[in-house]
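In this supplementary section we document a worked example of the pipeline. Step one takes a protein sequence of length 586 as its only input; no multiple sequence alignment statistics are reported here. Step two produces a three-dimensional model, which step three serialises into structure tokens for compact storage. The input and output of this example are shown verbatim.
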Amino acid sequence: MDYLKTALPSQIMSERGSNLVVINPGSANVRIGLASQDTPFNIPHCIARHTKQVPRRNVQDQMLNSQITTAQHMEREKAYDVIASILKIPFLDEEAPSNAFPRKMGRVDGHNPHIIRKDLPFSWTNVYEVVSMSSALETSSKDVTSESLDPKEDTDSKELHLSERKFREFICGEEALRISPAEPYCLNRPIRRGHLNISQHYSMQQVLEDLHTIWDWILVEKLHIPRNERNMYSAVLVLPETFDNREIKEMLSLVLQGLCFGSAVVHQEGLAAVFGNGLSTACVVNIGSQVTSLICIEDGGALPTTVKTLPFGGEDISRCLLWTQRHHQTWPQIRTDILTKPIDLLMLNQLKETYCEIKEGEHEAVAVVHSYEDRAPAGSHKTRLTALNVPPMGLFYPTLLVPDVYPPPPRTWFNDYEDMLEEPWHMEYTRPDTFYPNVGGGIPMWESYPIFATKPKREEKVGLAEAISNCILSTGRIDIQRKLFCSIQLTGGVALTNGLVSALEERVLHAIPPNEAIDTVEVLQSRMNPTFVPWKGGAILGVLDLGRDAWINREDWIQNGIHVGSNRKYKDSYYIQAQAMCYLNS
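The serialised model returned by step three reads:
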């Protein structure tokens, strides 16, 4: 302890964090890095595998239901008009179609380097690799070419090299999203909407294998930690509140048994976010790419009854941006399909991050939209985008955002999970407003599945402001409520949206019932990029945990698991403190 009092914080992180790998997995991205780093690698959480299957799907999630019903479409249009009246812009049907064509004619402002950089197109990923024999032939052919000026001989040599190329077995990260649909690859996303993406078409074994391959690739290629040295490293898993115990157990097995780390510990994402910003009490609102989760932290401890999860995030705002522009006829006549062409989603995310903000009045911008056809170079289309302040308002009016419906896991997944639960946990912690299966509510990803027919419905259509208000008021104590309403912490990439903080403060204040003696709402400023705050908090928790009472050794996990009564629990994780970790690995 004397060391901690005298050493500088940067010195402690550098010395004690050099062998700690912090992993913060999300639905769209995974953040991995050494605790000694200032920021982690933020890599798209996906993998594309070469396939010879015919007929093939170039995206595993093509089986999901992305069709919008008539009722959903009407609700979306109604939500647009409500938002339009608040932002003081024309209603959805007020704009004359004749105005659409002239508005599309625009010139990109060449004096804004930020926008110009964002307007650069993506390039297709090179899916080929060159075998070592071809490399050797290339070296020898260069020697021959240097001595011979025969162009025919040089052409034959190039054809030889092309014939030696073969498809890469798998491609991870952003490169996987930039693969042309014409290439023989299938894109897999192992985590979707805050849960393992297990379905009848994507088995648990394949999901875990894909997670292992992605993480192993990052450890080797980005962090340069080979497999034979990982027993000297420890892993800090910063996991979202959406994960259930079965999923946490699989993550631990992956890290300790699959990736061969010497030891590991699990921390909650919400709690880690508080430590990442140097706080002890806050209402943490994590707006991710596909899921928004809320939890209250008091004096460094999570309040389990406050957990709420909303089934929308940043990607839904991007999808809404596309719908808005198509409705106003400002989108070019190009084939934009974010389901079968993930590169289009990359483009839409960039447009959203660059141009979308929350403010009153009409908000338009001239932008360059790109079209990506099979293997062809990207086409550029100048257009004037309109109503750019509407999509982010979908956070407060979620009927504007129509999430995709994902196929359910097989029944064996739920049966296995039920066998791992203990009755005392049911009795002590009931959370009717969460996504956790069999604990008072269903999972929105699979809510239409017959197995959940008898489960009560969740607050699906509750907006972000109402959810925050309900989350804080559920603490039941006026003193902590006043403290939390003045300590709202936003994390996730969407938190960077201009105008979101003031809009959130205003709407949360109006969402508080008039009989509550609360008149102040404040969103705290983040000390760093809100995308990386939970990861940084995990790094701090890992470095400062000197006793390591909650850490699990690789040998203990593989041989014995963690037994009831062993007093080994995941620290700072309420849903695992409730049961004494009775997982047994057979």
